[in-house]
Amino acid sequence: MWRAEIKVLLKPSILDPQGQAAEKALATMGYTGVDRVRVGKYLEVTFNAPDRTAAEAKVQELCNRLLVNTVIEDYTYHLVEVAP
Amino acid sequence: MWRAEIKVLLKPSILDPQGQAAEKALATMGYTGVDRVRVGKYLEVTFNAPDRTAAEAKVQELCNRLLVNTVIEDYTYHLVEVAP
Amino acid sequence: MRPEDWRKLGLRDDEYDRIKEALGREPNHLELGMFSVMWSEHCSYKHSKAVLKTFPTTGPRVLQGPGENAGVVEIGDGLAVCFKIESHNHPSAVEPYQGAATGAGGIIRDIFTMGARPIALLNSLRFGPLTDERVRYLFAQVVAGIAGYGNRIGIPTVGGEIYFDPCYQGNPLVNAMCVGLLKTDQLRLGKATGIGNPVILAGARTGRDGMGGASFASVELSEETQAPDIQVGDPFTEKLLLEACLELIGRGDVEGIQDLGAAGLTCAVSEMASRGGTGMEIELAKVPCREEGMTPYEIMLSESQERMLLVVAPEKEAKVHAVFKRWGLTSATIGRVTEDGMLRIRMHGAVVAEIPARSLTEDAPVYHPEAKEPTYLKSTADLPLAAIAEPADYDSVLLKLLASPNLASKEWVWRQFDYLARTSTLVGPGSDAAVIRIRGTKKGLALTADCNSRYVYLDPYEGAKIAVAEAARNIVCSGGEPLAITDGLNFGSPEKPEIYWQFRQAVAGISEACRVLETPVTGGNVSFYNEANGEAIYPTPIIGMVGLLEDATQYCTPSFKAAGDLVVLLGETYDELGGSEYLALIHGRVQGKPPALDLAKEKALHRTVLAAIRQGLVRSAHDLSEGGLAVAVAECTFGNQLGAVVELARGDLRTDSLLFGESQSRVVLSLPPEKLPALQTLAAQEKVPLRVIGRTGGDRLQIFVDGNRSIDRSVAELHTAWQEGIPCHLP
Amino acid sequence: MKFGVIVFPGSSGDLDLYHLIKDVLEAPVDYIWHEDTSVQGFDCLILPGGSSYGSYLRGGALARHSPVMAAVTAFAHRGGLVLGIADGFQVLTEAGLLPGALYTNAGGRFHCHSTTLRVENPDTPFTRNLHRNQLLSIPFAHGEGNYFVDPATLQQLEENGQIVFRYADERGQPSMEANPNGSVSNIAGVCNKTRNVLGMMPQPERAGEAVLGSTDGLAIFLSILKYWEGRQ
Ligand SMILES: Nc1ncnc2c1ncn2[C@@H]1O[C@H](COP(=O)(O)OP(=O)(O)O)[C@@H](O)[C@H]1O
Ligand SMILES: [Mg+2]
């Protein structure tokens, strides 16, 4: 079994409304020195695959087909082998 | 400057409706072998701090006060020093 | 069992003795748990039951009064309205987004359980002052939670109310109301009937969440209060459950049905069995669980959301499962209806609990706590008006009142709600009452929720009366005929005699108002223990009211519509500043008696206003409430940015009473001059005082008192103050 | 002609569309279940507003993989009329039947209000009863209506006349102030290159009867009917 830990963020060129809202909130709470907040998604997917190469291929397929909208989002992932 | 990369997930005992719905969707798409999907938040916060210890303290404070709802969510983070 | 075992679960020593008596033996751990949740205040109403019996609950239209999941009143055309209000205060104090969301989810289930399609949501919210950071967080999250659930499930949130007061700082109130529509022949009840009938559990899987939520609702909040695992709302699953259940009920496939809320499966099985005079055999191994290894105790007490319990005829069983499957939901037959009145709970065949169903419900303890008039009333009762200086500048008082978050526009809130879903909203939030049409008929419903808890604090009996009268006035000003109410009674600990006195007085006040206004109580909710660190909230009996428009297009709104119309005040103004927003905001006093209310006069006012609206005499109607005449007229100018010139005669009143006093049974109307005689005839018949006080027109609001210009501001400036009253506190 | 309203799990605008088409337009209409694999017999498919799959993960992301979507896609490729409203628009972009993507409103919050739309292209099956620069009052209610396309695609959309509606102020000028969600170039609705697939965030079925305050939304459905008549 594999666990993919997937981090998804809006592409840098796209304005991040949730990040902006958090920045504003932090400012009203009196936090100075916070430069930027970006808000994205974190996904953990546990799945079967015979080996790492197959697992890599599978994560990418899942991300591109469902989990991530690559028109607006970028993702990175990290694969961990886990006990079934 | 520091960048905190924060992964937030619902606590394990708490219902994750988004993860469940994604699991179901993957099943209808014909993906067998996907055991579990968990949907959480990923945050990147860039901020000022004099040193790593201060940076650690600050991330935790930001998370506990605003960014994470510790009543239902757990978080882990990773700190990177970045050029200002 | 040791005393600490039951005490830990919130049971008293004498209650434990009662349990032994009911069982004829010592309970085991699971049985004790079941008793503890069912005998919690939240489920058993043990401190309120006796008093609630005094409500007027019958009327020609009432199909279902209190006692079921929601009340039902007939509206003709073979249709009925089903509605109820419910609190979710403590969960919202701990996790505001999910607390509010699951509050909405819970009340929606109560409505479709009855066979009704939910068509509207309302809410009633109380927070501490917005100047506090934690309050701002609670407020924003509660609003987001209501939106997150209501918007996603596709039910419009059409109204509500919000107040801010320090008494709610540590214990906010989140009450949600849902209104549904059903054909009278599709009314379903939460009864287990038909010996041998299968019992089906459907919807979400059962997890470990919300264990002990009912007990958590039944204690005061303090630093040490242990919150149960938070439930996360899943509006998507609820939407599927709603459609599946309505499909089954519509086809006549359901004998009895009940949602799972507080106390989860324990509550559903015991209530259904005891209402049906039956028992149930349940096999817990058949319950679809979210996690492995759940114990019988966890399964029976879990408060996982979005679940339903159904009793169906054996020949329908397979079909019922097929429908749930088609909607993508799990369902399982978990037991049968039996005739011996016992709940027999098994795990893999072995009996793990065996309790007479009634002992958990009807035979729960009933208490008649001591009541004592609160001492604070001695110091608040007197309001020496002479000591209150009249302000020099009425303009700035009006601006301050309009900007007070209690009176200011709530648009920041309701803009986040999808109030247009179902394409039936004729009047959305921001008016006196919401009006929705009923497709396929000419009819419409007017809906509102109201309570001025400061009045109730200063005089629980009169204050509660006023809450009912104000709700009815809002319905009437919108063109509806008041039909019935649901009540959300939020109080402190009933074990304190002064609180219990407030409670009894409030119930008596509501009862009197409902009798005179002919709006029976069809159901409601009691939430006690609303205290933080020993301090109780103001007694807050929220009145949710439903009114009927035979012709939905004959609705009315507060905004002035045309320049040159007459502005008319119905009702009498007195020197009544007690409990007013003016007194609290400008003079820092929560003091005096609330304004007097004569219910017969109120009723006469309603008849007059309704007749005027139905005869098409008036172009706008707005009731006077917090902020009095000046604020009400200002609000009338906002909708179309149409000003007015108002001329008042002071008589022997104080100017501040005249402008900002909150005397009851008053309404401001606007109408074309030629309609005045007809209106005067109506008012004269009902002996309702009528004064022409001004004319609409221009872009300023000018109010003259005895010829002196007391208020003179542009509508735009007043409107901005009112619009910004809430957003200016938020990031 | 016959309308088909797709019912995804969690849809809620389906009920409103069905009512409008059947009771107000008095045109033939039926629901299409998300598990159906054929859309035969239908001439215009509507993907309704609401929250399919609870809008979980991303609006439209999960519904896009419903079994019926293969048939919808084939139907669109054959030139069939497909209208996606709000959540339905999201499904169409997720499915690649329309360019771009929709994400969180610029303010970060859900909003429900009335908007003014300016007709940018009257030369589509959905807008032929309208004229260029005509203003429509149509409400919106969504949290993820912020439309994004990259600059190159935006230029193509302009050139191909694929921008069908823009948010405008009362004077008819598209502007950021009038734009409720921050969408790029104030876009409220786009069609595909062949103009037989339209997606829009504001909900025309909510402006279909005088008692609801506006009938401006009807024009879109009447355009479809007229277009169909012309084809016969
Ligand atoms: N929490 C809320 N949700 C939805 N609408 C609200 C809420 N609070 C206030 N409103 C709307 O704002 C309007 C004014 O509310 P309120 O000042 O309580 O009116 P009134 O004094 O006439 O009862 C009402 O239409 C009400 O429905
Ligand atoms: Mg009112």
Describe this structure in words.
The complex is a heterotetramer, with two copies of chain A (84 residues), one copy of chain C (731 residues) and one copy of chain D (232 residues). Chain A is of the alpha+beta class and 84 residues long. Chain A has a single domain (2-81), classed as Mth169, Chain: A. Chain A has helices at 17-28, 52-67; strands at 2-10, 34-47, 73-81. Chain A has a three-stranded antiparallel β-sheet with strand order 2-1-3. The model of chain A has no long low-confidence stretch (mean pLDDT 95). Chain C is 35% helix and 24% strand. Chain C has two domains: 1-39 and 188-364, Phosphoribosyl-aminoimidazole Synthetase, Chain A, domain 2 (Alpha-Beta Complex); 376-398 and 443-729, PurM-like C-terminal domain (Phosphoribosyl-aminoimidazole Synthetase, Chain A, domain 2, Alpha-Beta Complex), CATH 3.90.650.10. The model of chain C has no long low-confidence stretch (mean pLDDT 96). By secondary structure, chain C is an alpha+beta fold. In chain C, the strands form five sheets. In chain C, strands 8-10-7-11-9-12-13 form a seven-stranded mixed β-sheet. A seven-stranded mixed β-sheet of chain C has the order 23-25-22-26-24-27-28, with helices on both faces. With 232 residues, chain D is of the alpha/beta class. Chain D is 23% helix and 25% strand. Chain D has five helices and eleven strands, in the order E-H-E-E-H-E-H-E-E-E-E-H-E-E-E-H. Chain D has helices at residues 13-24, 68-77, 87-94, 151-160, 218-231; strands at 3-7, 29-33, 44-47, 81-85, 101-103, 111-119, 135-142, 146-148, 163-168, 187-191, 197-200. In chain D, the strands form two sheets. Chain D has a nine-stranded mixed β-sheet, sandwiched between helices. In chain D, strands 5-8 form a two-stranded antiparallel sheet. In chain D, strand 1, helix 1 and strand 2 (29-33) form a beta-alpha-beta unit. The longest helix of chain D is centred in the last third of the chain and has 14 residues, at 218-231. In chain D, 62% of the residues are buried. The model of chain D has no long low-confidence stretch (mean pLDDT 97). Strand 2 (34-47) of chain A pairs antiparallel with strand 2 (34-47) of chain B. The site of adenosine-5'-diphosphate has 17 residues of chain C, from strand 4, strand 5 and helix 17.
